[in-house]
Amino acid sequence: MVIEHGEVALEVIGSIIIVRNFDAFNEYGTQQYTNGVRAIVNDLKGQSFSILVNNLDFLGGTPEAYQELENYNLWLNQQKLIGKPWLSPQT
Fold first, then answer.
1. How many domains does the chain have?
2. What pLDDT score does 89 carry?
3. Are 8 and 24 in contact (CB under 8 A)?
4. pLDDT in tens, the chain (91 residues)
5. Are 30 and 70 in contact (CB under 8 A)?
6. Residue 2, domain member (yes or no)
7. What's the domain range around 33?
8. At 5, phi and psi to the nearest 5?
9. Is 76 within a domain?
10. DSSP β-bridge partners for residue 22
11. Closest CA to 58 of 12, 18, 6, 9
12. Rounded distance, CA 58 to CA 3, Å?
């Protein structure tokens, strides 16, 4: 049984993908996030895009979650990404 930890809200406004991450993520929750963004990028059909990532409510992740993010970022950098600003809590 696969149990996802962490929640993600995805929204698209024009050519901007808005991501909001909540709570702590395991690899399955991270895959939900990365697969969602991949689907949106595919729907953009080669159009350039930006991603705004809001991590103000993100509480971290497992080592497997961070490995999934590493693979995702390698893929993302090969797409028509213009920019990826992100918000995170001040520490």
1. 1
2. 84
3. no
4. 778 899 999 999 999 999 999 999 999 999 999 999 999 999 999 999 999 999 999 999 999 999 999 999 999 999 999 999 989 887 5
5. no
6. no
7. 7-87
8. -120, 135
9. yes
10. 7, 57
11. 6
12. 18
- With H, G, I as helix, E, B as strand and everything else as coil, classify residue 62: coil
- Is residue 37 one of the residues assigned to a domain? yes
Max Cα distance, the chain (Å): 38
Kindly report the CATH number assigned to the domain that includes residue 59.
3.30.750.24
Rounded distance between C-alpha atoms, residue 14 and residue 32, angstroms: 22
Give SS3 for 91. coil
Is residue 43, in this structure, part of any structural domain at all? yes
pLDDT value of residue 3: 84
Question: CB within 8 A of 39, min separation 6: which ones?
Answer: none
Q: Record the tokens describing residue 82, joined without a space.
A: 């213009």
